[in-house]
Write a structure and sequence with these properties.
mainly beta, 62% strand, elongated
Length: 244
């Protein structure tokens, strides 16, 4: 896995350097100077929301879109090498969707014979949502230099959608004698207001205060309001911050 290489690289470089003084502090089990510290975070994200493969029989695709993250975190420092890090973030997400289905409808032809006629419905559009999410992470820290600390984070998150908006169109291929409602399945593009899952990733802190990190958020609950659509929320977030 690509990120596995990123996680072990600092430790490997430390081992090869042969710096005994630094190596002894790589896993610092001593008591922290402060029990609780705080930090601010800001960044960008790329998110997506999937649909079960069997929902639309011709085509279903939800594309990755962009957004931003803004939040604060608190470190409950158990030891210098481990902390519990709850946080609260305001986050925007966006993405495009395209769905296509073919329906077969019985139609009586000129000879009075009932035949199945196909009807293709294509809908596409763009959605944006604004969310408040709360991650609760376990964060393990390693000293990879005198002024650099590396962290590996993992834990659950809980997401509450504050508002969503979007614009879309439905394109219909019409056949003789067939007329289907233009609003067919429009409600299936509506997301649920609550989601939860797991957030994990890594980051670096420089000179005790300056932070950069990357995390992945994997939703575990169904995304859509319509039963049977399934799908999962997922996002990459890239943040920078300052620890007070």
């Amino acid at each position: 896995m690509r990120f596995t290489r990123y996680f072990i690289l600092p430790a490997l470089l430390l081992t090869l350097s042969g710096n005994k003084g630094m190596a002894s502090d790589f896993f610092d089990k001593s008591a922290p100077e402060k029990l609780i510290t705080f930090g601010a975070r800001i960044g960008v994200n790329s998110s997506n929301a999937t649909v079960n493969d069997d929902v639309y029989n011709l085509w279903n695709k939800n594309s990755w879109g962009t957004g931003f993250d803004l939040g604060v975190v608190a470190d409950i420092n158990i030891r210098n090498y481990i902390a519990i890090q709850p946080g609260i973030f305001f986050q925007s997400r966006s993405g495009d969707y395209t769905y296509a289905s073919r329906f077969w409808i019985p139609v009586v032809d000129n000879d009075g014979v009932i035949q199945n006629e196909g009807k293709d419905i294509v809908q596409y559009g763009h959605q944006r949502s604004y969310n408040l999410y709360v991650p609760i992470l376990a964060s393990v820290r390693f000293n990879i230099g005198q002024k650099v600390r590396w962290s590996v984070d993992l834990g659950p998150y809980f997401n509450f959608m504050l508002h969503s908006s979007g614009a879309g169109s439905i394109y219909e291929l019409r056949y003789e004698g067939i007329d289907m409602p233009a609003a067919l399945h429009r409600s299936e593009a509506e997301r649920k207001g609550f989601d939860f899952g797991f957030k994990f990733g890594t980051g670096f802190t420089f000179f005790k205060h300056y932070y950069v990190g990357v995390h992945y958020m994997a939703g575990t609950a169904d995304v859509w309001k319509t039963s049977g659509m399934g799908g999962r929320n997922k996002a990459w977030s890239f943040t920078a911050g300052y620890n007070f």
